[in-house]
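Per reviewer request, we include the raw input and output of the structure prediction for the construct analysed in the revised manuscript.
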Amino acid sequence: MRYRDTGVDIDRGHEAVRRIRRLLEQYQPAFRENIGRFGGLLPLAVEGMAAPHLVASIDGVGTKTRVAAAVGRWDVCGRDVIAHGINDVLVQGAYPIAALDYLGMGRIVPERVEAIVRGMLEECTRHGVVLIGGETAEMPDVYGEDDVDVVAVVIGLVDGPRMLDGRAIRPGDRLLGLPSTGLHTNGYTLARKLFFERLGWAPDRWLDECRMTLADALLQPHRCYLPYLKPLLDRGLVRGLAHITGGGLTENVPRILPEGTVARVRLGSWPVPPIFELIRRLGDVPPDEMLRTFNMGVGMVVVVRPDDEPEARQTVEDLGLPVYTIGEVGPGSGGVVYE
């Protein structure tokens, strides 16, 4: 019996690694030697930092891969997993410096691996991040033949005095919402079961409400907020950040609130992308379930002092992204109150 008879083809794995090496030589030639090492090496310079901290986050794109598989658009999964990780370290004030990936699958398809890693490298290069290593695992006894799990670790660096931990947030602070592009990387199991299983829609079905196909609506990229927030962080305008992922506004905003406060969010103060209204209406999903499952059009919440709100808003809008004042922090016992 040969290994490939069990479903694990070492030659396909080697071909995938060769393709990754070519991508690294194209995008990050100074770090191509990390291929083959047991651990990725990244030179670190922290001159001028009083108390440097590395911040690491790990997450995946979940079952968005199922939608990508249906239409053969794998690069979006690579871009999304890096953008997601960058946003997660950013909320603690850290700027991303490095990433590692994990790709688990039932069968290695070199072209598929190449597309995913290309998406990762494009997003890394766009934001000054080095992809220092990764693992591609072919496990037919764990994953189905066409299953793919896309996961990444993003590592950021922040100086201790600039770290965001929510302790600076006070009642009266404003909550600014930065728009998402759609579902980002959360709520896909519900969305897929509704559209593809219950309704039986095809990925290429045209959605008049969204002015695009169903696949396009579901595969909108996870927005990376680093370009919009870095100027605010550099100027000390931010008191807190919440990345709105699984759990929605309901569960993510309270994670950054200090004791004795509550987030008061005004429904209707920002535009909700039509894909969410479709899900709510066609799936008969209760409003509270929508708010704790999906981002509902707000991908990042920025907490600022009232006096800093005009400058923060103008800075982000000058970079081409709308800003919505969606509420404020009030005295209370935690959580989110919708008004």
